[in-house]
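From the shared-data thread, chain only:
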Amino acid sequence: MFRGSLPDVCHRFDHDGAWVEILRYDTPHRKPASRLVRRPGALTQIRVPMVSKTPARSLWVVALFVTVSCTPDTPESPLMSMEPVAVPAGTGSGEPFLSSDGERVHMSWLEEMDDGSHELRVASLGENGWTDATTVQRSDRFFVNWADFPSVTPTADGTLWAHWLERGDMGGYDYGIRVVRSDDDGVTWSDPWTPHEDGTPTEHGFVSVLPSAEGIALTWLDGRQYVDGAHGEATEEMTLRYREVNVRGEAGPETLVDPRVCDCCQTDAAMTPDGAVVVYRDRTENEIRDIYVTRRAGDSWTEGVPVHDDGWEIGGCPVNGPAVAARGRSVAVAWFTGADDLPRAKVALSSDGGASFGAPVVIDDGNPIGRVDILYLDDGRALVSWLEQTGEETAAIRVRTVDASGAVGPSGTVSESSAARASGFPRMAPVTGGDVVLAWTDATGELPFVRMARLDIRDDR
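Structure, as tokens:
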């Protein structure tokens, strides 16, 4: 992978209508990066088939060829125009997460090393391109999972906060949350802090992070009730918990938000003028697993209520959590449901800070896998992304808008993808100028790698 600026172009030639380039990378790492180039009429992904190395300078010479198209051979989408964004992540990378501070987009990802360990890496994208990628942590104890992945979050004082998941001694689903911060743009990081103090060999993950007054606020799924402990006898119920920590390392109390939730669906959180809003998949005694919302009210949380009564009865976790975005007191929630054996991706809107929601609108194209994300555009429309099944093993990453009235715009395909779990959860973030970047794990080849596209969403109203 490369650090900082793009590599030098040593040679370029035409192959089947696409530019193919021979690139050089000065890098201490074993893995070359991929490079995106423009092909007439489409966006084209360039992959790495072979590498030769000059030992004296650790100089990678990389031959590149076309392996997959970012967009299908269809007319340009009426929803958007887009262009590829080269990323400082190499082959073997995955699980990207995006956040924005209004000026830069921050991306975290995991990258596998020669010895089987992984690095958690962070880089920031601004008007002048990417910063040098830095390593937050390298470990052979990361809990690496397609659905439960690390994050990076900026706060107003310039601090970067990152979290990852670390396996415990019992193996399996014994893993915990580790949180670090950096006050020098990711060059150095603090010692890790663990927000949960139960000490049980159970699952702690699916973390959502929000900036708070002096630090960050975290919500997570906590499995301590699956074993006996200081908290009492095991009830075998997953719980939703909350805690804050400031830049001085001072932490508030752990708070139980909901005593019984779905076991392994992502949580998400957004901030409104009234306080934090958290969405998650609930689990009733009758195994109804619909999307619920709870709001921070002073020092307590409101009782979780359904965003909509889908009535999805399912005996196990679908591993398909919701997403939430806020713009002032406007709140948008996206989610997947399989109620009545009919898969659907939906969006519901609130104009009162998440206290109530209107009837949801269906945003999929008839065969959704789910794995949603959502954000607000500068013009007040919500932009939602999801995975749509297109074949037995194939999928497409699609986006569309929903305006304040609930009217949906046309869908647009960002990229073909795999329907496999390894393709993960595409993530979006706004960039300066009103555009959006979307990052995802390309799992269509022999080795996964992170890709990104920049979307210019048209006003289709």
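The CA atoms of residues 203 and 223 lie 5 Å apart.
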